[in-house]
Design brief:
11 strands; four-stranded antiparallel beta sheet; 2 domains; seven-stranded mixed beta sheet
Length: 404
């Protein structure tokens, strides 16, 4: 097959060929980045959070009665809620929190050792550490892994209006940021005295794995109005049964509450990544449409230009070219166009990746993904060109004399 002659033939119709090549490049660029986005999202959903996400229930609620302005009344109702929820069959532990892990927003604050307040200038992540107000049951509810010291207890709970910071737990990454490999026990921070260090859990998925800085203090009863979430650790297999009883149990204690959502931690995690997942699905749908439109364009491109080359093909047939030679000629012309389009598509893929990376977290394209995406494009184009190619191979030699 004379590639030089094929290139010359393509240059004679450079406008339509150029449009098809551009369409192929855009389609390939979108396809590669859509697959990357879908794979990245699935990997995020599959990553280890350090939590038992399938067996942890979250209850999001808010009072609607003016009686809750009395904080003593507020605390008494919450205490009854926790007691009644803990009595449900299948519930192992119940706790109260001001915010949830696996989230970007929430209560943030700077954390530093009292002897080294300037450390927040050296590690900017310390300026926005997660501050959790909770109770002594949190370690059981989230099944936190203790690395050093002890968990929070009932004795660590601060009274309303206390001027003390009290005792706190911190995450492993925060301990390393503040004290390196040394012990953190007994150290005084601006948020309290450290009595324990727990293994990292996923607090903010957008931050590096070694920057999951978190402080846990037994202060939620003091600031009871921040206690927006009940967390229930449930025996495996009992999640749905417990979920169905939660609302009635809470409202039986005090009915003037809005229960916004009852979900598992796994559902909370999926909800966090719902934007990424929706965007990935939208891009993949768009890519499917682009591949379909490109296939139609390839069919029209081949059909139109073949119709203008009947005399040339008839002459080749008259000179002894076999049907399979003509078929190979048409397909090779198509493959050449697609090769140029895919080469340009590689550049387009990196361009789209750089553009999208300014708004969302996205991995870089790799050569294997480029090859697989190109194969998909080539297969779609070959199928679309096959019908015109077969018709062309059936052009009889006599067509050359009819068009003289």
């Amino acid at each position: 097959m004379n590639i030089k002659a094929l290139l010359k033939s393509l240059l004679l119709r450079k406008f339509t060929t150029g449009l098809l090549i551009l369409q192929l490049a855009i389609t390939l660029g979108l396809l590669i980045n859509s697959v990357i986005l879908a794979v990245d999202t699935n990997n995020k959903l599959a990553q280890d959070t350090g939590l038992d996400i399938d067996n942890t229930l979250i209850v999001s609620l808010h009072p609607t009665s003016g009686e809750y302005r009395n904080l003593d009344y507020y605390r008494s109702i919450v205490s009854q809620d926790l007691h009644q929820l803990n009595q449900l069959s299948g519930v192992e532990s119940v706790s109260l929190m001001n915010q949830l892990p696996i989230n970007t927003r929430g209560m943030l604050g700077n954390v530093y050792d009292l002897d080294d307040p300037e450390i927040v200038r050296r590690d900017l992540y310390l300026q926005d550490s997660k501050i959790f107000l909770t109770n002594e049951e949190l370690s059981n509810t989230l099944a936190l892994a203790l690395l050093e010291g002890r968990f929070l207890t009932k004795d660590d709970q601060l009274d309303f209006g206390s001027d003390e910071n009290g005792n706190v737990l911190i995450t492993e990454s925060l301990k390393k940021a503040l004290y390196g490999e040394g012990s953190a026990l007994g150290q005084e921070t601006n948020n309290g005295r450290i009595v324990g260090v727990v293994k990292d859990i996923m607090l903010d998925p957008t931050l590096p794995i070694d920057k999951q800085y978190g402080v846990f203090g037994n202060r939620v009863m003091e600031f009871i109005f921040t206690g927006r979430y009940y967390l229930l650790r449930v025996i495996p297999g009992q999640v749905e049964a417990v979920r169905n009883k939660v609302s009635d149990t809470i409202l039986a204690v005090q009915a003037e509450r809005d229960i916004y959502r009852i979900m598992t931690m796994a559902e909370h995690m999926k909800r966090f990544y719902s934007h990424d997942k929706g965007l990935a699905e939208l891009f993949l749908l768009l890519c499917g449409l682009m591949i379909f439109v490109t296939a139609i364009s390839s069919y029209a491109y081949s059909q139109f230009h073949i119709s203008r080359q009947k005399k040339y093909i008839g002459i080749r047939r008259a000179l002894g070219a076999r049907k399979k030679d003509i078929l190979l000629y048409v397909l090779t012309e198509n493959w050449l166009v697609y090769s140029i389009g895919c080469a340009l598509g590689l550049v387009m893929a990196f361009g789209f990746n750089i553009l999208l990376s300014q708004y969302i977290s996205l991995s870089k394209p790799d050569i294997m993904l480029f090859i697989l995406a190109s194969v998909v494009i080539f297969i779609a184009g070959t199928i679309a060109t096959l019908i015109p190619a077969i018709k062309t191979s059936n052009i009889p030699p006599v067509i050359a004399t009819r068009t003289v």
